[in-house]
Design a protein that fits this description.
Elements lengths: L2 E2 L4 E4 L1 H4 L16 H14 L4 E9 L4 E8 L8 E8 L6 E6 L3 E3 L4 E2 L2 E5 L3 H15 L2 H16 L5 H13 L8 H9 L10 H11 L1 H6 L2 H17 L1
Helix pairs in contact: 2-3, 4-7, 5-9, 6-7, 7-9
């Protein structure tokens, strides 16, 4: 579950989205019904062979803003691929779709993922969005396989304490971590909050993402920098 609610949004059942009233279009703003965004993405995922196994949706009290997360069945077993969604009728942010293993959607407007689509609410976006979604979803299977191979490499790369220390220092130098977050990464490495296996690159990766939950949402590029650091550690080991 990677849907974070703390700014007035409330969780709703999928059926409730269809009952919401979408404001009338203007010359410059063409709202997309929240339910249409969800249906469009779920259809594209199903068409290209992805199975949604869990979904969470939320709207603000006035129904103007929508946030959602879809979890996809993974054949790899130890993590979930997710799709993050957001939409607004009040021009507060554009239509957003994000794909990743740890996609983050938050009602404080934070939105992050490995592959992100953002489109303004215009007549063209309403026309083009289905094709745009299909273009991104079509190669998703290959991306998920590549991601699984990366995570397997992390899981089977044991790390010594000095390698962990060096990696965390590199995260700091690369702007992934600030000084205040280093103790939390170390704590999660030594006393992990979840079962991330033994002392491997996978545990270190998860320790970092655990400590960076909010920061990653604010700055999605940090995810790619983190992968670069962990990939570099794995290369030195092998």
């Amino acid at each position: 579950m990677t849907l974070c609610l703390h700014r007035g949004a409330a969780a709703v059942e999928p059926a409730a989205l269809a009952e919401l009233i979408t404001p009338a279009a203007t010359h410059s703003h063409v709202p997309l019904p929240h339910v249409d965004l969800v249906s469009m993405v779920k259809y594209a995922l199903g068409y290209f062979g992805h199975q949604v196994v869990e979904e969470h949706h939320a709207i603000t009290e006035d129904g103007m803003r929508y946030f959602g997360v879809l979890s996809l069945r993974s054949g790899y077993g130890f993590y979930e691929d997710t799709v993050g969604l957001r939409n607004s009728h009040d021009k507060s942010f554009p239509i957003g779709i994000a794909f990743g293993s740890r996609t983050f959607v938050c009602d404080n407007l934070a939105f992050a993922g490995d592959h992100v689509i953002k489109r303004k609410h215009t007549a063209n976006s309403k026309r083009d969005l289905p094709g745009l979604v299909a273009e991104v979803v079509e190669p998703l299977a290959d991306q998920r396989r590549a991601q699984a191979l990366t995570f397997d490499r992390y899981r089977f790369t044991p790390l010594l304490e000095h390698q962990v220390d060096h990696a965390i220092l590199t995260m700091y130098r690369q702007g992934v971590l600030n000084v205040q977050r280093i103790p939390e990464v170390l704590h999660q490495w030594h006393e992990p909050a979840h079962d991330w296996g033994g002392e491997t690159a996978w545990r270190l990766f998860n320790a970092a993402t655990f400590a960076l939950t909010g920061k990653v949402a604010e700055a999605p590029h940090i995810t790619s920098r983190l992968h670069q650091v962990i990939d570099g550690v794995c290369e030195t080991v092998h």
